[in-house]
TrEMBL record:
<dbReference type="InterPro" id="IPR013164">
    <property type="entry name" value="Cadherin_N"/>
</dbReference>
<dbReference type="InterPro" id="IPR050174">
    <property type="entry name" value="Protocadherin/Cadherin-CA"/>
</dbReference>
<feature type="transmembrane region" description="Helical">
    <location>
        <begin position="547"/>
        <end position="570"/>
    </location>
</feature>
<feature type="domain" description="Cadherin">
    <location>
        <begin position="427"/>
        <end position="539"/>
    </location>
</feature>
<feature type="domain" description="Cadherin">
    <location>
        <begin position="53"/>
        <end position="161"/>
    </location>
</feature>
<keyword id="KW-0130">Cell adhesion</keyword>
<dbReference type="InterPro" id="IPR032455">
    <property type="entry name" value="Cadherin_C"/>
</dbReference>
<dbReference type="GO" id="GO:0005509">
    <property type="term" value="F:calcium ion binding"/>
</dbReference>
<dbReference type="GO" id="GO:0007156">
    <property type="term" value="P:homophilic cell adhesion via plasma membrane adhesion molecules"/>
</dbReference>
<dbReference type="InterPro" id="IPR020894">
    <property type="entry name" value="Cadherin_CS"/>
</dbReference>
<keyword id="KW-0472">Membrane</keyword>
<dbReference type="InterPro" id="IPR015919">
    <property type="entry name" value="Cadherin-like_sf"/>
</dbReference>
<dbReference type="Pfam" id="PF16492">
    <property type="entry name" value="Cadherin_C_2"/>
</dbReference>
<dbReference type="InterPro" id="IPR002126">
    <property type="entry name" value="Cadherin-like_dom"/>
</dbReference>
<feature type="domain" description="Cadherin">
    <location>
        <begin position="315"/>
        <end position="420"/>
    </location>
</feature>
<protein>
    <submittedName>
        <fullName>PCDGK protein</fullName>
    </submittedName>
</protein>
<keyword id="KW-0732">Signal</keyword>
Length: 667
């Protein structure tokens, strides 16, 4: 049972930078049958010196660089791990520079020169320093590099990145050439001194240069090699922007690239032991095989479910089906299978969908073989899940049936581009966001608001500044769309700025849209509106429309007032006439109304045929007015009032209760 070393062990050859370094094995013990797992950890010794990429380094530093400027140095590499790995750097004594040792997220060290005292080219044209790398062994191992610094006249302005740190995420199976991030720097100088070249910083590890490529002109960082989440989950990439001046100005930034795990590793099944043949009288629970299953993926992608494959007696009571949206209509998505131990017609099975009224236009099942078909194209944004019941029935009498539940899940595709909510893409208003002169750097001016109808990773939106009137004045947040001032506003800045913001999702393929932002430099919104009024065209044919509208309203109002005044005067005149008639008839003696009588006096021969009257009275006839209608022909009896006074009972009368209104004498 002793475990022996068979050959010389080299930890660096076996595990590289991985710590701890371990070798796993399995031991099978029989009688009784048992399986044991063992691990041998390989411990590191300090048997490797730190090594610099080159024995000499050369830097060109302008005498105009201010104190506090930092200059990254090439890192030394030590294949040992733990305390035996590279621990620190030391710099030879000098009056101008100090050494600042930084630690990356993976624990490795790198050094930066920090300028403590400004350089003077007329006093000293060059400096020679010695950088020493030390590991933590006992005794420590070391390496040296000569640093030669040329002090030269540089540009007045160095490039400046719009962000000091960029963040991006990319899937591990992303193909070569995929865009990861786009860095952007600006230089206020003109000509070659303002042209920028992007490159990796000098202390960028060689492994990073193998996996990523940087476009020197556009600043686009793209995938170059094959990423592997199981190997490295996060890359810390240091980049620099250098202008084309005689003494180039340099700016540095950092890009953090997170590798997203995908399910690219299938589970590995190892059959440790198989016992065959199996006796037919073997008791339940008898061991027939020992299996070992591993999956190199992480999180849910690394979880393994073990089950017996179909095709043997082991039945399902539910099915889960995953279908990509925008599918082709008519495709089969599932085969529901069942068995019946009966014979003949009693074992003939037919499959039907219960509740066809709900999903009958979406799904169909073959009655003979149980194949479930999708009849139409599904949309993840419309509905994510469909649940239905499939019934399996035999052909016996009476028929026997069983039900199985089927759940169809619609998975998302990146078929929706980001949609801009603010600013509204279809608006025609000339209103612009306002920022006051002298606003300091870091002030939030406005925000681009957008949504993506897709789900999950396909709905993640990133914002980048695509075009600007002055690229050095504004910057946009990569993940939130907030637009900030990148520097303090000056008096000589343009009063109007137009920004074009590019919005991209993280789907495959990437879908994008753009938004245009107008920003005015003014103290108040009133100034902006005044400026917009001043720039209106003088020969606009619609400039008199408002005047004509106001004039039309005044004329209509005047006509309405005159009409109402005339109606009022006419009503007053009629009212006075009715009052005169009322006062003149108050002394007239009225008959007390009796039962309703309707006597056709004309046909009865009591009065001339040409004479006809109607009298309307209230029950309190002493307070009633009279309605007098003219005869059909001219009456010889004189005025209407006289006729009413001398009227006989034989005349035609109609007595009504309370009249709804009092007629005027004219009526």
């Amino acid at each position: 049972g002793a475990l022996l070393v068979n050959e010389r062990i080299d930890r660096e050859e076996l595990c590289g930078a991985l710590s701890p370094c371990s070798l796993s094995f399995e031991i099978v013990v029989e009688n009784p049958l048992e399986l044991y797992s063992g691990t041998v950890e390989i411990q590191d010794i300090n048997d490797n010196d730190p090594v610099f990429p080159s024995s000499q380094a050369r830097l060109e530093i302008s005498e105009s660089v201010a104190a506090g400027a930092r200059f990254p140095l090439e890192s030394a590499q030590d294949p040992d791990v733990g305390i035996n790995s590279l621990q620190t750097y030391q710099l030879s004594a000098n009056p101008n520079f100090a050494l600042d040792v930084q630690t990356r997220v993976d624990g490795s060290k790198y050094a930066e020169l920090v300028l403590e005292k400004e350089l003077d080219r007329e006093e000293q044209r060059e400096l020679n320093l010695v950088l020493t790398a030390l590991d933590g062994g006992s005794p420590p191992r070391s390496a040296h590099v000569q640093i030669h610094i040329d002090v030269v006249d540089a540009n007045d302005n160095a490039p400046v990145f719009n962000q000091s740190t960029y963040k991006a995420s990319v899937r591990e199976n992303t193909p070569s050439g995929t865009l990861v991030a786009r860095i952007s720097a600006y230089d206020l100088d003109d000509g070659p001194n303002g042209d920028i070249i992007y490159s990796f910083s000098s202390h960028t590890p060689a492994k990073v240069r193998e996996l990523f490529a940087l476009d020197s002109a556009t600043g686009e960082l793209r995938v170059k090699g094959q990423l592997d989440y199981e190997e490295t989950k996060l890359y810390e990439i240091y980049l620099q922007a250098k202008d084309k001046g005689a003494v180039p100005g340099v700016a540095h930034c950092k890009v953090l690239v997170e590798v997203v795990d995908v399910n690219d590793n299938a589970p590995e099944v190892t059959v440790t032991s198989v016992y065959s043949p199996v006796p037919e009288d073997a008791a339940p629970g008898t061991v027939v095989a020992l299996l070992s299953v591993t999956d190199l993926d992480s999180h849910d992608n690394g979880l393994v479910n073990c089950f017996i494959s179909p095709g043997i007696p082991s039945s399902q009571d539910s099915y889960d089906v995953y279908v990509l949206e925008n599918n082709m209509p008519g495709i089969p998505i599932l085969n529901v299978s069942a068995t019946d131990p009966d014979l003949g017609r009693n074992a003939h099975l037919s499959y039907t969908l219960l509740g066809d009224t709900t999903f009958g236009h979406l799904f169909s099942i073959n009655r003979d073989n149980g194949t479930l078909y999708l009849l139409t194209s599904l949309d993840h944004e419309d509905q994510v899940e469909f649940n239905m019941i499939v019934q399996v029935q035999d052909g016996g009498f009476p028929p026997l049936a069983t039900n199985v539940s089927v759940s169809v899940f619609v998975t998302d595709l990146n078929d929706n581009a980001p949609m801009v909510l603010y600013p509204h893409p279809n608006t025609t208003a000339t209103y612009a966001d306002v920022v006051a002169p002298g606003t300091p750097a870091g002030h939030m001016v406005t925000k681009v608001v957008a949504v993506d109808a897709d789900a999950g990773y396909n709905a993640w939106i990133s914002y980048t500044l695509l075009q600007a009137t002055d690229p050095s004045l504004f910057s946009v947040g990569l993940h939130n769309g907030e637009i900030f001032t990148a520097r303090q506003l000056r008096e000589d800045d343009a009063p109007e700025h137009t920004l074009v913001i590019l919005l991209k999702d993280h789907g495959e393929p990437v879908l994008s849209t753009s938004a245009t932002i107008s920003i005015s430099v003014a103290e108040t919104v009133k100034e902006v509106l005044t400026d917009l009024t001043d720039v209106a065209p003088a020969n606009d044919p619609r400039r008199h429309v408002t005047f004509y509208l106001i004039l039309a309203v005044i004329l209509v109002s005047a006509a309405f007032f005159i009409t109402m005044l005339s109606v009022g005067i006419f009503k007053c005149y009629k009212w006075r006439q009715s009052r005169e008639l009322y006062n003149s008839s108050r002394s007239t003696t009225y008959r007390t109304p009796g039962p309703f009588n309707h006597i056709d006096a004309v046909r009865g021969g009591f009065t001339p045929p040409s004479f006809y009257h109607q009298v309307y009275l209230t029950t309190d006839s002493r307070q009633s007015d009279l309605l007098c209608k003219k005869p059909f022909t001219s009456s010889p009896l004189g005025s209407r009032q006289g006729t009413i006074r001398n009227g006989e009972p034989g005349l035609y009368h109609q007595i009504v209760g309370t009249a709804s209104r009092l007629p005027t004498p004219a009526e």
